[in-house]
Design goal:
Largest sheet: 5 strands, antiparallel
Structural class: alpha+beta
Number of strands: 14
Radius of gyration: 26 Å
Shape: elongated
Length: 286
């Protein structure tokens, strides 16, 4: 009986491990033909940006290799960018969606990031220390506040589900308040809690640097912004570069699909082996 129990637990552990392995790298990828062909060349950024076009707006293109416009976005509008692709001219392109089934690629030179926890890290990295700790006088059932960054305008309530509440690194603001960073808690990621006053929602709002760089008038390789080439050869040159880039990425394009099939095969094999073991050790004896 003990032997069967040990085998059952081992099989269960294998299933849990396999499931974790499949879901560990789960990222919602865009349904976009260009992305599907160049997935391995795209960087996952997972961040919101604000439009900052040269003349009050900027065009969004079908792909970084196409001159076809799919929509125009206005300055100060906010969009979520999931992936960024860098072309042969070192121009970075971000994939955006407008929430109305329109999507495409926009030059990142015409976008600037919304200030968030990552921005805070970049600005104050020298003042953040890896000091772990527990927020005092907080117990299960208490409600505290999580902040996007120390003194951010965005804050939300968090119910403490354990007897203690831990944090992983600290920052002391200009008012002398100590803040603790929490990597993950009950669905909330990368947020800050005021260690001194965790239940106070009225802490001073931090002034942030919202200075935006002036957008460039021209970007080499971007339609409508590059210097024109005589005899209409600009588009031909662009298409030639696109063909070369596509050829170079043909082998890498299938990698994402191969990974999906590999994960699926592992799950099927695990299920099959599990079924055989269970049938062998737990089946009715004749």
């Amino acid at each position: 009986m003990k032997k069967r129990l040990h085998i059952f637990l081992l099989v269960l552990l294998c299933i849990v491990f396999q499931t974790a392995a499949v879901h560990a790298d789960l990222i919602f990828e865009p349904e976009d033909s260009f992305y599907e062909k160049h997935a391995d060349a795209c960087e996952y950024v997972n961040r919101s940006y604000i439009v900052n076009g040269y003349d009050g707006e900027t065009d969004v293109y079908e792909s970084p290799e196409s001159a076809e416009k799919v929509m125009t976005v206005k300055n100060r509008e906010k969009y979520y960018i999931s992936f960024v692709y860098t072309d042969r001219n070192h121009v970075k392109w971000g994939f955006i969606e407008d929430g109305q089934e329109n999507s495409g690629w926009v030059p990142m030179d015409y976008m600037y990031p919304v200030y968030n926890s990552q921005s805070f890290y970049e600005e104050y990295k020298d003042k953040i220390t890896p000091d772990e700790g527990i927020i005092p006088n907080v117990t299960k059932g208490d409600v505290i506040y999580g902040w996007t960054y120390p003194g951010s305008e965005t804050k939300y309530k968090i119910e403490v589900m354990e007897d203690t509440f831990d944090y992983g690194s600290t920052f002391t603001d200009e008012e002398g308040h100590q803040w603790g960073n929490v990597g993950y808690y009950m669905g909330n990621r990368d947020f800050w809690v005021c260690v001194d006053e965790p239940q106070n929602p009225n802490l001073p709002v931090r002034e942030i640097n919202e200075e935006v760089k002036e957008a460039p008038e021209k970007i080499d390789g971007v339609p409508g912004t590059s210097a024109e080439v005589d005899n209409g050869t600009d588009k031909n040159i662009r298409n030639e570069k696109a063909d070369k880039q596509t050829a170079e990425n043909e082998n890498a394009a299938g990698t994402g699909t191969e990974n999906i099939w590999t994960a699926a095969l592992l799950v099927v094999l695990t299920a099959a082996v599990t079924g055989i073991i269970i049938k062998k050790f737990f089946g009715k004896k004749k």
